[in-house]
Write a structure and sequence with these properties.
The complex is a heterotrimer of chains A (332), B (312) and C (545). Chain A is mostly helical and 332 residues long. Helix content of chain A is 70%, strand content 0%. The two termini of chain A are 37 Å apart. Classes of the chains: A mainly alpha (332), B mainly alpha (312), C alpha+beta (545).
């Protein structure tokens, strides 16, 4: 019996088969293999297959990539529901401190154990989803918004505007992102929105750079010139032609950026710039639990797993989006 | 060619100058006053004023900036507000540790990234490739300090194979270097793998095959070279990531280094130290990217051709 | 991941009970743990690696006069000696000063110094050197933290090579006790002149160990001072330290610090976190040395210059909402005692009658707040004239010694009475700025000191210093504290300070939380480590088996 991975991903013989983490640029072979697979996986016998065979057949037709995207979506949906209605999912309140249940190991009463306050770690993880998602999503919205504007303007306008903006971005990139984020959150003081701001400022240059390249390539296309000639304003062209052309790229980068922002946010928490809230975010939980590492591994393990699960899902989704819409886009 | 290099150098200097100026402005916005911090518990207002004058923080922003730049031109980075130590010697004491950490991590990242990337491309679609892709997805999705904490727990505390702390030396550096290198290797690995897979289907490969070149030679010489160009570009961008990672790794493993020093200086508003550190970071960023630019010529013969023809 | 929890709940609960039963109400004297320790004959040789909690600071300031930071003072103690030594029971013993006389008016001290002492740089220790030290501290331009330890010091007169008369403008009773602090350790005048601003990086004293090198932020390497023949009275042995080398490693992460002890990278580590302390108490491989730090206990200060905390009734309601016992027990797992007075129990003048003086009474707190017009809002937080009852807690030290964890529990307890406590974690710079300007509702802090005069530094009004985090002004308290610092007999001082403590607790000027027990855990091969009367480690008697 072949391993499941082999069966699902690598069943198409000689040529390069399709895999989960498809190379974004290797588009030609994939299409070929997809065609081949559908041909080869047709039932060999003409008679009606049994029910179990049907299921097996369906399963074998599922690509591992799809399965993983499905799992990612499930994880995301779960995290999202944790963020929206934590009280329906969590068995306790994050503010419940039970002095008779301090540092209890994971078990029937507490799946993820309890922390040094006697709080249920599973509950904390569920309630922490909101803060962590907020950091991830809003940091991306801000950094993406600003970065895209700078990038599009620079790429589309070209000339001295481009030079000035891009030099500015160069300067920005020359300062290590985390130091910039630390300096900003020290200036602004600790709070969720300041963390979001600090994380997003550090991420802006990345978007600006990629989008500038995209805008430049779009600008040189003939239809832009045609629109210009037809009397369209720059703003209209940017909005109607350039932006839509880059939208897939933006979508992919933004999706992948959510994971990155969550990681940077948790790094800030680790460095002591986190927000101590009644409902701590995952980064803060992880940071708080680390002194109990040798006596209560669960306080540090589960929040870390939660971050990892969310970021893996978001990254898988980003990869899938990239493959689906824009096989030739530049990888991260 | 010479003109291009000169141009690049000028632009680089501009970037460094810009970075120092930008951080100067941000830092001035930081809350607190270094003089109060330094002056001591029972310091009178007079003492604080005296310390302020000694530090030069009683002057206007413009004056402070001008004197900082004037010092910079003469290679003087100022004196730490808190320790009264020249910034040059303070940072010089910390630089080797950070340089060693980041260089070692960078080497690990390149070895892992290029090695795994090539092997994945060769084994494209087989279990090896899939495992590498899956594992690297996890590496890049974990908070690096969490990865470090788990490695300490497993390799130092439970198994006792590696020391937990220590500066320099081979053994104590294994975990920090691995933690940092693993995370940075992932984008490289993906870039190499994707670049090679793409390269394999370029028309010139077919031409080379037709010419009767061995598969091995085609793969390792031509295709790999093709994949290296974007990888090297990426490496330039990753310098910032390495330095950012070093901040966290140094804190986690209680190592000395510029990253930790800078974080502390930020909280104490020890501006000369932060500015010195940013200067080092921006210089290394600019230098690496300059090297990256120059290396294109060497890596990709097509670029060399294009440059010599003046079409680039 | 299959990680085996080394410590399940039953074990933890059991040791909790043991601790609670064993430590009930005892005078906080040094307690060696009951672990079996193999004792042999001390001999010299070897290197001890001592991992200490030095916070994540990357600079070591090893100038005794310049550092107010306890972790650095722990290192400084091994490099610098003091004129006198503090002995248990508030007694002062000779060290670099063989004897001394105090004039009847308390204004002048005559010290007779040892004549056989040399600094590490070979220069002679004498009356001129001591005068240099005191004058250095007094000079405001030097901006030294030790300034607050010499009170109204005026001048020193060199009587002869080894006799010094120290004069004060007004009596300063804490002087001898302060002299025993590491912050008044004697530095080499020649080295200060040689290194100037850089002296903290090149410390030169007369101590049992001399400085060899440091790696900024991570390591301080010392070696034995072979000439050392001037151990303080009460020391386990007189003469050079047993250890060849003593290396301090800064390991701020709690879990890492315990890990380096367990895997043998360090022979001894300090400030063991409670969760590991309960575990180490039963260990046969390690032994523990624990002693109360002479301290102004970690206390909460409501900003009484700000509404509504200026009203004593609101402060009382705040305190009545707290269950300090439960919080301390939860966070410190029974390893620390709950504090009743601002002063730690072993300090001169500690008022034991304050113990058990008040307890949590949520109903009374709610009642008082209702009466004052603070009515519960829709989310349970009280509101008056549209203003919510928020308490912004200003913090800059993070979770050192689990202090933020303590506040986190208080936040929950306060919430039940309708207070909304917000934790505002700022950089040190911002913290100082805000405490100076009074832009906070609540701050907390501790201050180690060998004398009850520490109260004056915090509560005396009219001295706007970094330490005046207490923003109130009480003429009666001012008077008591000033009289306490000038009274000539211990009896008189005890009487004054007990009044002061009661006043502070009665008026809820501050809320003491826990008594810090300084702890060192050492592998059994490391013997002879002790903790002095201040609560600082003594490593000159340590030896390796």
């Amino acid at each position: 019996m072949k391993s499941a991975l082999e069966q699902l991903g690598g069943a198409s013989g000689g040529s390069l088969p399709d895999v989960v983490f498809e190379a974004p640029r290797a588009t030609a072979p994939r299409r070929v293999s997809a065609v081949r697979r559908s041909a080869s996986s047709a039932p060999e016998t003409p008679e009606e297959p049994s029910w179990s065979r049907k299921v097996l057949g369906f399963l074998s037709q599922l690509r591992l990539a799809d399965v993983l995207v499905g799992i990612s979506l499930l994880v995301l949906a779960f995290v999202l529901s944790c963020a929206c209605v934590p009280s329906l999912i969590a068995p306790f309140l994050p503010t419940d401190m039970r002095s008779d249940a301090i540092l209890v190991a994971p078990g029937a009463a507490h799946f993820f154990g309890t922390d040094q306050f006697g709080r249920d770690v599973f509950t904390l993880v569920v309630y922490g989803a909101r803060q962590s998602l907020l950091i991830g999503v809003f940091a991306v919205l801000i950094s993406c918004g600003v970065g895209v504007s700078i990038g599009l303007t620079a790429g589309y306008a070209g000339g001295w505007i481009d030079t000035i903006l891009m030099r500015f971005i160069d300067v920005w990139m020359a300062i290590p992102a985390i130091l910039l984020a630390i300096a900003l959150s020290t200036v602004l003081g600790p709070s969720l929105h300041n963390t979001i701001l600090a994380v997003s400022v550090a991420a802006i240059p990345r978007y600006a750079r990629v989008l500038r390249g995209q805008a430049r390539s779009v600008r040189s296309r003939p239809f832009i010139e045609a629109s210009r000639a037809a009397g369209a304003s720059h703003w209209a062209i940017l909005r109607r032609h350039v932006l839509p052309h880059c939208s897939v790229q933006i979508l992919v980068m933004a999706t992948l950026g959510v994971g990155g922002s969550i990681l940077v946010g948790s790094g800030l928490s680790f460095l002591g710039l986190g927000v101590n809230d009644e409902r701590p975010d995952w980064g803060y939980l992880l940071t708080q639990g680390r002194s109990y590492l040798t006596v209560a591994w669960w306080t540090v393990t589960y929040p870390g797993l939660a971050i990892t699960a969310l970021v893996v899902s978001v990254n898988l989704l980003g990869d899938a989006l990239r493959r689906r819409f824009d096989p030739r886009s530049a990888p991260r | 060619m010479l003109r291009r290099i000169l141009e690049r150098v000028l632009v680089s200097l501009g970037v460094i100058f810009g970075a120092v100026t930008l951080i100067f402005l941000v830092l001035n916005w930081l809350p607190g006053d270094a003089a109060t911090l330094v002056a001591g518990d029972d310091a009178s207002a007079e003492t604080i004023a005296h310390v302020r004058a000694k530090l030069g923080t009683n002057r206007s922003l413009g004056a402070q900036y001008r004197s900082y730049l004037a010092g910079l031109v003469h290679g003087d980075l100022g004196t730490s507000y808190v320790t009264r130590e020249p910034v040059v010697s303070r940072l010089a004491a910390q630089l080797p540790a950070t340089a060693a950490l980041t260089l070692a991590a960078c080497s690990v990242a390149i070895l892992l990234g290029v090695g795994l990337g090539v092997l994945s491309a060769l084994n494209h679609g087989r279990w090896f490739d899939q495992v590498v892709q899956a594992v690297s997805l996890f590496w890049v999705s974990m908070p690096s300090f969490w990865l470090g904490i788990l490695m300490i727990l497993i390799f130092s505390v439970r198994l006792g194979w590696l020391p937990v702390i220590g500066d320099g030396g081979l053994l104590p550096s294994v975990l920090p270097v691995l933690t940092l290198g693993m995370v940075v290797s992932v984008p490289l690995q993906r870039m190499v793998r994707d670049g090679m897979l793409e390269g394999l289907h370029e028309p010139y490969v077919t031409t080379l095959r037709a010419k009767g070149l061995g598969e091995r030679r085609i793969f390792y010489v031509h295709v790999l070279r093709n994949a290296l160009t974007p990888t090297v570009t990426l490496l330039g961008v990753l310098v910032g990531e390495l330095l950012s990672g070093a901040v966290i790794i140094e804190t986690l493993f209680a190592r000395q280094g510029i990253g930790r020093t800078t974080v502390e200086a930020i909280t104490q508003k020890d501006m000369p130290v932060v500015q010195g550190a940013i200067l080092i970071a921006s210089v290394s960023y600019v230098l690496v990217n300059l090297l990256v630019d120059l290396s294109y010529n060497w890596i990709d013969p097509r670029t060399r051709l294009a440059t010599s023809k003046g079409t680039r | 991941m299959r990680l085996d929890p080394r410590l399940g709940l039953p074990a933890l609960m059991l040791s909790l009970c043991l601790v609670a039963c064993g430590k009930h109400g005892g005078e906080a004297s040094a307690s060696q743990s009951a672990n079996p320790v193999v004792v042999g004959k001390p001999h010299s040789g070897g290197e001890l690696v001592f991992a200490f909690d030095g916070a994540s600071l990357t600079q070591f300031a090893l100038d005794p006069h310049k550092s107010a930071f306890a972790p650095h003072a722990r290192v400084i103690r091994s490099i610098f000696d003091s004129l006198v030594v503090l002995l248990p029971g508030h007694r002062i013993g000779p060290w670099l000063a063989k004897s001394w006389e105090i004039s009847p008016d308390g204004l002048s001290y005559t010290f007779h110094l040892r004549d056989d002492v040399k600094f590490h740089d070979g220069t002679r220790f004498d009356a001129v050197a001591v005068k240099f030290n005191l004058d250095r501290i007094k000079e405001p331009k030097n901006a030294l933290y030790a300034l607050s330890d010499i009170g109204g010091y005026q001048a020193s007169r060199v009587v002869d090579d080894f006799t010094l008369r120290v004069e004060f403008a007004q009596p300063y009773a804490p002087f001898l006790a302060n002299l025993s602090k590491s912050s008044l350790g004697i530095v080499s005048p020649a080295a200060v002149q040689k290194y100037g601003d850089q002296f903290p990086l090149h410390p030169v004293g007369t101590g049992p160990f001399r400085f060899t090198s440091m790696a900024p932020g991570t390591e301080i390497a010392l070696e034995r001072n072979p000439d050392y023949q001037w151990s303080p009275s009460g020391a386990a042995h007189n003469g050079p330290a047993w250890l060849d080398r003593l290396t301090f490693k800064n390991v701020p992460e709690e879990a890492t610090r315990v890990a380096v002890l367990e895997n043998g990278q360090a022979g001894a580590v300090d400030l063991i976190p409670p969760q590991n302390l309960v575990q180490l108490r039963t260990s046969t491989k390690f032994h523990l040395i624990e002693r109360e730090l002479l301290n102004h206990n970690y206390s909460l200060y409501l900003n009484s210059r700000r509404e509504p905390w200026s009203d004593e009734r609101v402060r009382k309601a705040f305190r009545l909402s707290l269950d300090v016992d439960a919080a301390v027990k939860t966070i410190y797992l029974g390893t620390a005692r709950r504090a009743w007075s601002p002063l730690s129990p072993s300090l001169l003048g500690y008022d034991a009658s304050l113990e058990g003086g008040w307890k949590q009474d949520r109903a009374a707190a709610k009642h008082a707040l209702d009466d004052l017009g603070w009515k519960p809002g829709p989310d349970g937080i009280r509101v008056k004239d549209g203003k919510r009852l928020t308490v912004s807690f200003l913090d800059a030290q993070g979770n050192r010694e689990k202090r933020l964890d303590l506040i986190t529990i208080f936040r929950r307890q306060l919430h039940d009475s309708g207070f909304d406590l917000k934790i505002d974690s700022e950089s040190l710079g911002a913290w100082i700025e805000k405490t100076q300007s009074g832009e906070f509702d609540l701050v907390a802090g501790s201050l180690f000191a060998p004398d009850p005069d520490v109260l004056q530094r915090i509560y005396a009004s009219g001295r706007p210093t970094l330490l005046s985090i207490f923003k109130g002004a009480d003429p009666e308290l001012n008077h008591l504290l000033e009289a306490g610092s000038q009274a000539l007999t211990d009896d008189e001082r005890v009487h004054l300070y007990q009044q002061a403590q009661r006043l502070i607790v009665d008026k809820t000027y501050s809320i003491p939380t826990y008594v810090l027990i300084y702890s060192v855990a050492a592998a059994n091969r490391v013997q002879g480590i002790s903790v002095d009367a201040h609560g600082f480690p003594v490593l000159s008697d340590a030896w390796l088996q």
